[in-house]
Amino acid sequence: MGSIVWNLENCVNTILDIIVIKTGIVISEDYLIEILNHDFPNSYFENYSIRKNNAVRIRSEKFDEICWSVRKRLGELEKNSPLFIQNIDKILVWEEQGICYSSLCRKILQMMSDIYNPNNPQFIDPKPIIDQLVSENEYPIEVIVEAFKDILHNQTMSNTIKPVEEILWDGGISLSDLFEKEHIPLKEDEFIDQKFINYLQANPEKLQYMHWRNFERLTAEYFNRQDFEIELGPGSNDGGIDIRVYNTTNKEKPYIIIQCKRHKESHEVKIETVKAFYADLLFEDAEKGLIATTSKIATGGKKAISIRKYPLNYAENKEITDWVNKMSKR
Length: 330
What we know:
restriction endodeoxyribonuclease activity, Type_IV_Methyl-Rstrct_Enzyme, 5-stranded mixed β-sheet, Restriction endonuclease type IV Mrr domain-containing protein, single chain, Restrct_endonuc_IV_Mrr, alpha/beta, DNA binding
């Protein structure tokens, strides 16, 4: 592979363009440089403000590595895996059976190329291609599916911005929204954007810094995905109850009431908060109460729950991180 020689500032701007479109998350140049200096210490990006007008030579494979690393840090990629074939052992078994996997992949790519209209770029529906390949009865269905998985993986890993990606790009969401203000997702059935969940899964230390209202939304989304009916409070003047969770079979009273405490990890939820929340639970006649926090419950609060047998549970930083891991998807 060859090298690219260019102005460092142009290089950074190109990386930023790729990252924003591929991840759907809009970040600042300063944050990009912070990530690059963390992941690639003592590299071209050190003292960027001073060196940005300098010329740099970057090999194309190194440029890909840089882009993959940032995309992973933003939560879009789960791992850096540039190999086209993901399960080489399975492919070798098929090759021994006389199935030419590479020929199938080339055939699929040609079929996709025949469908693609450069004058009207659109994502290609794989179903008609799969149906045709199955009807031809030349390759087993599991081989066809594996080939599509590898092709999709290759396209996902590509750092080339395709015309269809530019046309269909929705402008992305600003990462700063996660920390600075309430962000309402475009999808009505979601409480928080999936891109933010993926980002938090890749950066769990950022949970304690997210906007308190978005933490409430994250908590609501966790229970929403368990098929409960969710009532997210107004965010202020809510009487200490941020979320009401209802069983679909009984909507007369809450099954769980939740109070969310987005604190820094060093800031414990005090016993007074626990006692006050128990009073809220009695007033609501809910079956259970839950305090969800990015920090932890003070020892006195935990003892009060245990000794007085309050029907209260708590989810501390580790449990919240587990929630995020369960909700992440790519």
